[in-house]
Design brief:
The complex is a heterodimer.
Chain A (H helix, E strand, L loop, with lengths): L1 E7 L17 E2 L2 E2 H10 L6 E6 L4 H10 L5 E6 L4 H12 L8 E6 L7 H14 L1 E7 L23 E10 H12 L12 H7 L5 E4 L10 H10 E2 L3
Helix pairs in contact in A: 5-6
Chain B lengths: L1 E9 L2 E8 L5 E9 L2 H8 L4 H7 L7 E8 L10 E4 L2 E2 L27 E2 L12 E3 L4 E3 L11 H13 L9 E5 L3 H14 L2 E6 L2 H4 L6 E4 L9 E6 L6 H11 E9 L11 H6 L3 E4 L5 H11 L2 H8 L2 E7 L2 H13 L5 E6 L2
Parallel strand pairs in B: 10-11, 10-13, 11-12, 13-14, 14-15, 16-17
Antiparallel strand pairs in B: 1-2, 3-4, 3-8, 3-17, 4-5, 5-9, 6-7
Classes of the chains: A alpha/beta, B alpha/beta.
Chain lengths: ~240, ~350
């Protein structure tokens, strides 16, 4: 079984909107999280979906799932205090329904432009490597600066990629990585911004799946403007 | 949901579009696509500028197969491979025309002025996902692969036979002018669909050699060709006129010429002989569902399918717009009888 985990637990504080997390903003009349869920709901290779959602929005989410006829959502679980806690909540929610070899595709609700090709590539790469991250090659020159005033180095660009989501794993790999991470005392856990960092920390190899420059993450108001401007009238 | 598509916005310019797809119907992922001469005319800008302005931006391609990814009605299982039909019925109250053609079985929706046709006055199949209805899908039988993309061309041949009443009145001798892909496919339909002896007139010895199921004649040497009662013109362009005039000379009295090639210029033809021999000239283009059903049925015949397979020049995986450009450039330059097929990955 292939399970998509959609992370809709963010507060969206960088959007400057205080009463609504970014994943619930509407783009042309439909919440962002629904645009994202639709892409996974129609995908031939996704069997079930778990949505990690902030508690106070779960009733709205349930109404939207009916309104937009999203059929594959089997679990709605609470968001955690960090991204890692949210992913862990999802792994706990699905644990009785999955086996070690099942594939877990973890995706940000705030990336509504994910393509079918990216989802399918993730699943294929997990079959090959056991774990994969969606990336795009860096096109800008990367600069490092430790003090924010002067350049320390200009590393070779070809070694750099930008990480996107989905990030995908066999259930065993992501479960073991989380169990190992959370077995550490809280003050000894390294800071991680995503699931792949945690799996890498656990010593596992992670393959690369090619993302897409249009697979934008809605983080700021400028991103909302960009995404809305990319979508054209249907005919 | 948001889906990507490639649209032509001006000659030789494709752009990536992202649109919010209505998901209320059957969702199909286009799988194999083939470029048609009509698509190439749009790509190269070989149409009137004002016509192009009205049509662009538009997704091209009307020859396509797909894979059903969701059908809430349950008629199609996910994973079912289908041929997708490009002719869309008109939303018409039947009051605009003197006589509605939609119930005339020699015409049908294809000739309704309100009908839409993908990649002509409506978006074609160059999209990540198509939202459609069951009447525009035909299941592909097991054992038929990428060659099913030729169903549209085969259906055009089937439509020509339907228009001329040849399915009912099985003609024994049919002559086809044209050694291009349309001539090849119409000849195949005449041979294996109608059961006729087929004579083919062409210009290229290499292409004519591939018509191994028919008697072939070089265009400058058709004296030995027997007279026929049905001639099909599948030449188009500037050579259509000479093809039609040759056909007029080879037809028995009361014979019929079916015109299927596209010409932009007027064709001077020998109307005196048309009158003297009481000939009928009939135009045919495109096709509707019943023609597609015949086409897919023909593909289950081993001899027919084997000869359609010869048209597959190769399969190219198209996973970005650069590959899509290359496919159109290659198709525009190609002199081959067959086509390269695009396997689409958005």
């Amino acid at each position: 079984m292939n399970v998509a985990v959609i992370l809709a637990g963010g507060k969206g504080s960088r959007m400057g909107i205080i009463d609504m997390p970014k994943q619930f903003l509407e783009i042309y009349g439909k919440p962002v999280v629904i645009h994202t869920l639709e892409s996974f709901d129609v995908n031939e290779n996704i069997d079930a979906i778990c949505v990690v959602c902030v508690k106070e929005w779960q009733n709205d989410l349930k109404v939207w799932l009916k309104e937009y006829d999203i059929r594959k959502v089997r679990w709605i679980t609470d968001a955690g205090k960090t991204r890692q806690h949210s992913s862990l909540n999802a792994l706990d929610a699905i644990k009785d329904s999955v086996s070690d070899d099942d594939i877990i595709v973890i995706h940000d609700a705030a990336r509504p432009l994910v393509s079918q090709r990216i989802i399918n590539d993730n699943i294929e790469k997990v079959k090959k490597y056991g774990a994969c991250d969606t990336v795009i090659p860096a096109v800008d020159t990367i600069i490092t600066s430790l003090d924010g005033e002067y350049i320390d180095s200009i590393p070779p660009r070809k070694e750099f990629y930008r990480g996107q989501t989905p990030q995908s794993f066999t259930y065993k790999i992501i479960r073991d990585s989380y169990d190992s991470y959370f077995s550490l005392p809280e003050d000894e856990r390294p800071s991680m911004t995503d699931d792949c960092g945690l799996v890498l920390h656990g010593g596992k190899k992670i393959g690369l799946a090619l993302g897409d420059r249009t697979n934008l993450k809605l983080t700021t108001m400028e991103d909302l403007l960009l995404i809305k401007s990319m979508i054209r009238a249907n005919r | 949901m948001f889906v990507k598509s490639y649209k032509i916005t001006e000659p030789k310019r494709f752009e990536i579009f992202i649109e919010d797809l209505n998901c209320d119907g059957i969702l199909v992922r286009p799988e194999y696509l083939a470029v048609c001469k009509a698509d190439i005319r749009y790509y190269l800008g070989n149409r009137d500028v004002n016509v192009l302005k009205k049509k662009f931006p538009m997704s091209l391609i009307h020859e396509a197969t797909g894979v059903v990814i969701r059908d809430k009605s349950g008629e199609f299982e996910p994973g079912q491979r289908v041929v997708m039909l490009p002719c869309l019925k008109a939303d018409c109250d039947n009051t605009k025309c003197i006589k509605c053609v939609r119930n005339d079985d020699k015409l049908l929706d294809n000739y309704c002025p309100e009908s839409r046709f993908r990649s002509s006055n409506f978006d074609g199949f160059s999209k990540e996902i198509i939202n459609t209805e069951s009447e525009y899908l035909i299941k592909i039988p097991d054992g038929i692969g990428a060659e099913a993309v030729f169903s549209e061309l085969i259906s055009v041949g089937c439509c020509a036979m339907r228009r001329a009443g040849l399915w009912e009145k099985k003609e024994k001798k049919i002559a086809v002018w044209g050694d291009g892909i349309m001539g090849y496919i119409i000849s195949l339909v005449a041979k294996y669909g109608i059961g006729a002896d087929v004579s083919v007139v062409g210009l290229s010895p290499e292409k004519l050699a591939k018509f191994d199921f028919a008697d072939t004649y070089f265009v400058n040497n058709i004296e030995s060709m027997p007279n026929v009662s049905v001639a099909i013109e599948a030449v188009g362009g500037n050579a259509a006129a000479s093809a039609v005039n040759q056909a007029i000379d080879k037809l028995c009295s009361g014979g019929k010429i079916i015109l299927s090639g596209v010409s932009n210029d007027n064709a001077p033809i020998n109307t005196r002989m048309v009158l003297e021999h009481g000939l009928t000239l009939m135009g045919t283009t495109r096709s509707v569902r019943c023609d597609f059903e015949k086409a897919v049925g023909l593909l289950t015949l081993p001899e027919f399918r084997e000869r359609i397979l010869r048209l597959v020049e190769g399969i190219d995986v198209i996973d970005n717009v650069n590959g899509y450009y290359r496919a159109f450039d290659d198709a525009a330059k190609s002199q081959a009888l067959g086509k390269r097929i695009m396997k689409m990955v958005f």
